[in-house]
Amino acid sequence: MTGLSTTKAGITTPDYGLGHTLRLGASRVAYETRVYFRQTDTLFFTFLFPVIMLTIFSVAFQGMGNVGADPDGSGGISQAAAYLPGMIAAGILLSGVQNLGVDIATERSDGTLKRLGGTPLPVLSYFFGKMGQVFVTSVLQIGLLLLVARFAFGVTLPADGASWMTFAWVYVLGIATSAVLGIAISRLPRSGKSATAVIIPPVLILQFISGVYLQFSLLPDWLQNVAGLFPLKWIGQGMRAVFLPESFAAVEPGGVWNLGSVAVALLIWLVAGLVICRLTFRWIRKDS
């Protein structure tokens, strides 16, 4: 039997139960994904951006030879193979933090959230749709990255199940953390017009200090410590453990991949993001 609840801005809305909430959420996933792929700017700066950057760096630096090669030029890995883990990590961050941060801030500014607040749509269904869209588009993005790396640049992908198991849990923790942080950071812009200016620069800076565009071990210690406060560094480290040879662990902090710390850091950020979302998310701004 249907009850009543007052969960959204004091508006009495029907409580249809968890099953109905999840069905509404699934329909929102399909809707949000369609909208995502219709936005040209989002496709370029979020979905295709890591693929484009992988291509640019692989072609631009291939004349420098292999990364980690012996003095005689033998051994090592190609530039494309070296950049692949960082681009996957960057894609995860862009899909969650940048995509949702800008998207939700814009929806709050243009009145979309206010209109949804006056409908029976549960908040959980809205979040389910947003996070589902992030998972779908992120999986497609990583699939495209792997295809380009393998067939355009000849990168050898892991052949053992253990590496792919590590990839799976680093990816799930990373994308979930990025998604909730994107929802949380969407409160920062004062308007939809300022969303890109507020959110994109910090995301770009994090990519430069977290081992995406620059080899992490080449950064000064203090900058490595700063990067270690944020999740992108840990996502990148986890992905390097998956896609780079074991010998490359020697240049990581402590000389090991340290996957235990990767899991702990991402879990801490995931919980912190969930708490922030719970405390700050509103269908409309309080100062509206």
Q: What is this structure, in a nutshell?
A:
The protein has 288 residues and is mainly alpha-helical. It has helices spanning 18-37, 40-60, 79-109, 112-117, 123-153, 161-185, 195-209, 221-227, 231-243, 259-280; strands at 3-8, 11-15.
Please, could you describe this protein's structure?
The chain is mostly helical and 288 residues long. It has one domain (11-62, 76-280). 66% of the residues lie in helices and 4% in strands. The chain contains ten helices and two strands; from the N terminus they run ββαααααααααα. Strands 1-2 form a two-stranded antiparallel ribbon. Strand 1 (3-8) and strand 2 form a beta hairpin. Helix 2 runs parallel beside helix 5 and helix 3 (79-109) packs antiparallel against helix 7 (195-209). The longest helix is centred in the N-terminal third of the chain and has 31 residues, at 79-109. The protein is elongated. It starts with a strand and ends in an 8-residue tail after the last helix. The model is unreliable at 1-13 (pLDDT under 50). The chain crosses the membrane at residues 43-61, 81-102, 123-152, 164-185, 197-216, 256-281. It comes from Subtercola boreus. Pfam families: ABC2_membrane_3 (PF12698). It is found in: Membrane. Residues 41-287 form the ABC transmembrane type-2 domain.
> Fraction of residues in helices?
55-70%
In sequence order, what are the helices and strands, one letter per element?
EEHHHHHHHHHH
The fraction of residues in strands falls at: under 5%
Number of helices: 10
Structural class: mainly alpha
> Mean pLDDT, nearest integer?
90
Structure summary, number of beta strands: 2
Question: Please, how many domains?
Answer: 1
Biggest pleated-sheet summary:
2 strands, antiparallel
State the end-to-end CA separation: 36 Å
Spatial extent as radius of gyration = 20 Å
Biggest sheet, spatial arrangement of strands: 1-2
Low-confidence stretches: 1-13
Describe the global form.
elongated
